[in-house]
Amino acid sequence: MEIEVLEKDDKNMRLLIRGADVPFMNALRRIVMAEVPSMAVDEVVILENSSILQDETIAHRIGLIPLKTDLDSYNLPEECPCKSEFGCNLCRVTFTLDAEAKEGTRTVYSGELVSENPNVTPVSDNIPIIKLAKGQKLRLEAYARLGKGKNHAKWQPVSMCAYKYHPKIEVSSKNCDACGKCVEICPRKVLAKADDKIKVRDLMACTLCQDCVEACPQNPKAIKIGWEENNFIFSLESTGALPPEKIVVEAVNTLDKQLNELENQIKVKKDEEN
Ligand code: SF4
Ligand code: SF4
Ligand SMILES: [Zn+2]
To answer: What is the CA 49 to chain-centroid distance, rounded?
Structure first.
């Protein structure tokens, strides 16, 4: 298998993976979404709430705020040696919020949540939590823990994770009269017309929608859209909880661990039978 990084910034990553198959790509995608842990608020103790929102609604909103995650310093609660329902410093981060609308109506933002660990904070300070009218107060403590997307979407480290086949575009120089209809209809601006010829401008942007083939007036069609078997484009967008490359590495390690466990279980079963 060969992997090429096509694009990467602090939140997004696009990889070209050659020599894989659909089951592998699917496993990788599902592990990214369901098994790679991230931090999210899991419990909220409301100390004072004179706003118009119920405690449960506020707790739900706070739970959905993506938090910068420090995977190396914290344990999953079920793996932490403390075995405590309440948690300890190795499996829980405490946030406090003390907000009051003294002057008039105001919005309380995620940036007002004060974390006990400066490395675990909301990924954005500008997520609105609640609006308070003059004189209203909100005081609470919130406890964040590591968790997995398979238990609740708030622990998913990605807002998007998808793969597609590597596209293959062929334009027949015999049939094509360079009418440009395929260029006009393409929603992703993949094609371009230059020197009375149709050229592929941005192959990776092609979604294989086939609109260009339908628009081609020639019979037989002068453009053919296909894909390369075993070559895939894998894209993910992090919520900001973890860097995208960390998410991929964690997913691959998890897949490796799961396959080893499966192998061991098969061995144990075989030994029992013999
Ligand atoms: S298949 Fe769709 S996205 Fe790809 S080149 Fe044709 S119109 Fe554009
Ligand atoms: S629509 Fe068909 S004939 Fe027209 S430029 Fe595109 S491929 Fe060529
Ligand atoms: Zn613990």
So the answer is: 33
